[in-house]
Design a protein that fits this description.
The complex is a heterodimer of chains A (about 270) and B (about 170).
Chain A (H helix, E strand, L loop, with lengths): L7 H23 L5 H35 L1 H39 L7 E11 L7 E4 L12 E4 L2 E9 L4 E5 L6 E6 L5 E6 L5 E4 L12 E4 L11 E9 L8 E6 L8 E8 L1
Antiparallel strand pairs in A: 1-2, 1-12, 2-5, 3-4, 3-12, 4-5, 6-7, 6-9, 7-8, 8-11, 9-10, 10-11
Chain B lengths: L1 H19 L13 H13 L1 H16 L8 H15 L10 H24 L6 H41 L3
Helix pairs in contact in B: 1-2, 1-3, 2-3, 2-4, 2-5, 2-6, 3-4, 4-5, 5-6
Classes of the chains: A alpha+beta (about 270), B mainly alpha (about 170).
């Protein structure tokens, strides 16, 4: 049976709760970054940081311990293989350094600017989105470490996202897979510019790519460096699907991100130019 | 008052599990909303106003980590809690069928509301794709946790009621 009609005090309480919720939505949407509700959110993020990083440390410790115990036998053969790889990489590193120096000399001769390096801040992922509606992560670096809003976040594999909110000790990063995220990109082979948009799932939509631009499956997509948030030439992913529609001026394509967002543990925040 | 304090403690505990554990059991973008499951369970055992209050509190906690639109979760969960509360005593208290159906319906409703509100605030929402990979998987994921959460909530509420009777002045 259905619950009997609520009495007046309950009706008033329910209306009040709904009214407060609506007011919060409107005030938060209308106020600026330093508004009261935004400050409450930042303080809450700061308060939750120790809980999240503490739990993460315990989880990692337990996982590492378990892996060490279960994979002890394999470690010995891995060690031998890695020792050989280190020797090969050392030789390769010397050759790379030579090539780098040669490249610098040639660029100087041509009068072209050398490739710029970025200052980065290493950071741990201490939290992830609390619901399916946003693709975000929380990092253990904040204002106290020099992190600012709109700084790009990447890892060795490629682009991760951008900082969208900063508290004193932590920051919130919007992943490029988030539905509200769009990144200006360039195809590596022909330098054509397009836009990659998150759709909440594993893949990204490649939009605004004109039909006449040749794009193939497996092609590398890099940041274009336009828009002022993401520096150029960071790997975003590879084209996983492309169809030139008979009508329309743009192609339909999707990009598979270079980063595995489900297993992110450490990233670096790009804080500026070197 | 004591009843509310009890609810708040359970919601805070669930919220901590939600932010600490749940992100690690993400399946292709969909993850369970344990706070929503607890809100629906509270509403089904305690009624409309307690359901709405739990939704308000749980939504507020989630909104603290919502970057763009604070208040979405508060509003949606308050409404969900109130609607679920109407169905209090609908079927046997210990039965699991009503909570399962309730959680599924509440999950689908709240996700659709979330999409509509995002659309209202100018976001691009592709309803067909979110229905396939977000709304239904999240609802099923929530249903999966209900047989564990609902009996626990019923036990907590019963224990709290007994304790309140014991504490009440004679």
């Amino acid at each position: 049976m259905l619950e009997k009609r609520p009495n007046w005090s309950n009706r008033i309480a329910l209306s009040l709760l709904i009214l407060i919720s609506v007011a919060v939505v409107i005030v938060h949407f209308r106020e600026n970054e330093n508004g009261f509700l935004h400050r409450v959110q930042k303080s809450a993020m700061g308060l939750l940081t120790p809980i999240q990083s503490g739990t993460l440390s315990s989880v990692r410790f337990t996982t590492n311990l378990w892996e060490s115990i279960t994979q002890f036998g394999r470690l010995k053969s891995d060690n031998q293989r890695l020792t050989k790889e280190v020797a090969a990489l050392r030789r390769q590193s010397v050759v790379s350094k030579e090539l780098e120096l040669e490249n610098e000399r040639l660029l100087k001769l041509l009068g072209a600017p050398a490739r710029r390096d970025y200052q980065t801040l290493y950071s741990n992922v201490i939290g992830k989105s609390v619901n399916s509606w946003q693709a975000t992560i929380i990092l253990d670096k904040g204002m106290n470490d020099g992190v600012k809003k709109h700084m790009a976040v990447a890892m060795a594999d490629g682009l991760v996202g951008q900082v969208i909110s900063v508290s004193k000790t932590s920051c919130l990063v919007q992943l490029i897979t988030d539905q509200k995220c769009a990144v200006g990109v360039r195809l590596q082979s022909n330098r054509a510019i397009a836009v990659v948009e998150g759709q909440g799932g594993k893949e990204l939509d490649l939009t605004l790519l004109p039909r006449e631009i040749p794009a193939t499956k497996g092609e590398l997509v890099l940041t274009a460096g336009i828009g002022g948030v993401y520096p150029p030439d960071i790997v975003v992913g590879t084209i996983s699907y492309v169809v030139a529609k008979p009508q329309g001026i743009y192609q339909e394509a999707r990009v598979s991100p270079a980063v595995d967002f489900w297993t992110l543990e450490e990233v670096f925040i790009i804080t500026g130019l070197k | 008052m004591q009843r509310y304090l009890f609810q708040v403690s359970v919601l805070i505990g669930t919220f901590i599990i939600q932010i600490v554990v749940v992100p690690h059991i993400n399946l292709s973008g969909a993850q369970p909303d344990l706070v929503l499951v607890v809100v629906v369970c509270f509403a089904l055992t305690e009624g409309l106003i307690y359901g709405a209050a739990s939704g308000f509190g749980g939504g507020f906690l989630e909104d603290l980590l919502q970057a763009k639109y604070m208040g979405f979760n508060m509003l949606i969960k308050t409404v969900v809690g109130a609607i679920a509360g109407i169905f209090k005593d609908y079927g046997p208290k210990e039965g699991i069928l009503i909570p399962l159906v309730g959680v599924f319906a509440a999950s689908v409703f709240s996700q659709i509301m979330m999409a509509l509100m995002a659309f209202l605030f100018g976001e691009t929402v592709v309803f067909k794709s979110i229905f396939n990979w977000l709304i239904i998987p999240t609802a099923l994921y929530n249903v999966l946790f209900t047989p564990f959460i609902y009996p626990a909530v019923v036990k907590i509420v019963n224990w709290q009621q007994k304790w309140a009777r014991f504490e009440a002045p004679k």
